[in-house]
Amino acid sequence: MEKIIFMFLLFVSTLFANIGKITLLEGEAFVKRGEETLRLNISDQISNNDFIETKTNSKVKITFIDNTIITIGKESSLKIEDYFFDSNNKNSAKTELSVSKGAFHAITGQIGKVNPEKFKLKTKNATIGIRGTEFYGDENRIVCTQGRIIILSNGVSVDVPAGNYINIFSNQKPSEVLSLESNTLEDIEERLNTNNQSDSSNDIDSFNNSPSSPLALDGVQSDNQENIDNQNSWGNWNQNLQALQDEKNIATINNNIKDQTNTTSISPDILTDPNYIQDQITINQRLSYSGTFYGTDVTDSGNMNMNIFMGGSLSVSGNYEFGYKGETYNGTLSSVDIPGYDSSFRIFATGNQPSNGDITLEGNFYGNNMDKMIGDLKNFDNTNPDAIVNFSATK
Q1: Would you list the DSSP string of 234-283?
Q2: Is the C-alpha dihedral spanning 67, 243, 337, 149 positive or negative?
Q3: Which of 158, 130, 119, 155 is nearest to 364 (CA)?
Q4: pLDDT in tens for each of the 395 residues of the chain?
Q5: Coiled-coil regions in this chain (predicted)?
């Protein structure tokens, strides 16, 4: 009996534990917690299963204890489905959020670094998996501004690198990956900015910050450090994509909706079918790719030339060169591994500069016919073990 009581108390304490707090509030926002609906104030704590809604000309920013930051705009809603973070138990860290309405801005924190495969954010038409990143979105568009995200919508998974976006729809496959333009974020940013009148605007400085009851608790530790994420913790999303699916995202694609002009071809940014890859590995052939590099600290996109030889055994030849933080890095490709049970590949290289262990190029094949390779290159600089760049190569 004592054990049962202890487990129950542990469950209750976890369920209602402080997982974050309101760090910015403009206008009006409310939280539905159990049977209560309460108005939010600055510094109010949030808990698992909270359902947060904003009103007209309102927005709210939540900073979680791992320093993940989620902002929702006017007339938006956020459900904290499941959240857990303990610095002493990082393997159990997880974040599951749902934005069923409105616009949002997300910057991942420690969970995005230590356990990225356990971070997911659902919208009305898609589920987003992250790899240490920053992204924006609403019901119809997801934009990646830093890192990389994988979006699952209506059974189709799409890899979206920084500087790109996709459009998502109800009961349709998502659009191809599109390059971010100056006006891409206008609508989302407009929904995130309240544009309140000066006499009704509430911010950190002017809003009545007195804690409400019973939301605000004493002894809350504040982490005000700037949340700057990176792409260094990606996780094996190839094996975990199906874990992202939910009932909304596995709806049958409406066959009456007009398909792309060439109905026999899939966007080159859709993961290649593993069965196709398995068949190609057995054929005596050479696949040639060329591409460039990109990323936050890439100062020269450079070039990559690659030949993959298949049939009986796998081998690779080729070279690469790019600029990173003003320095030039180049190397020669030496071996390749294509497991065939998913869309992934792993290539080893030898650099012309001192490296931090094995230089690797890891990523996935995309398109019906392995048309594109997208991934990241790491371990190329022994003075910076966390250095990483992204690449894209087309057949």
Answers
A1: ---GGGTGGGG--GGGGPPP-TTS---SSTT---TTBBPPHHHHHHHHTS
A2: negative
A3: 158
A4: 554 544 444 444 444 578 999 999 999 999 999 899 999 999 999 999 999 999 998 999 999 999 999 999 999 999 999 999 988 887 889 999 999 999 999 999 888 888 888 899 999 889 998 875 889 999 889 999 888 898 988 888 888 988 899 999 888 888 989 988 878 888 888 888 765 433 333 443 333 333 333 343 333 343 434 444 333 333 333 334 334 444 334 333 233 323 332 333 334 457 888 899 999 999 999 999 999 998 778 889 899 999 999 997 899 999 999 998 888 999 999 999 998 888 899 999 998 776 656 799 999 898 889 999 988 998 888 888 778 898 989 99
A5: none
- 3-state helix/strand/coil string of 160-221: EECCEEEECCCCCCCCCCEECCCCCCHHHHHHHCCCCCCCCCCCCCCCCCCCCCCCCCCCCC
The residue assigned the tokens 């005000």 is 224
Straight-line distance from the first to the last Cα atom of the chain, in angstroms, rounded to the nearest whole number: 65
CA–CA distance, 98 with 84 (Å, rounded to integer): 15
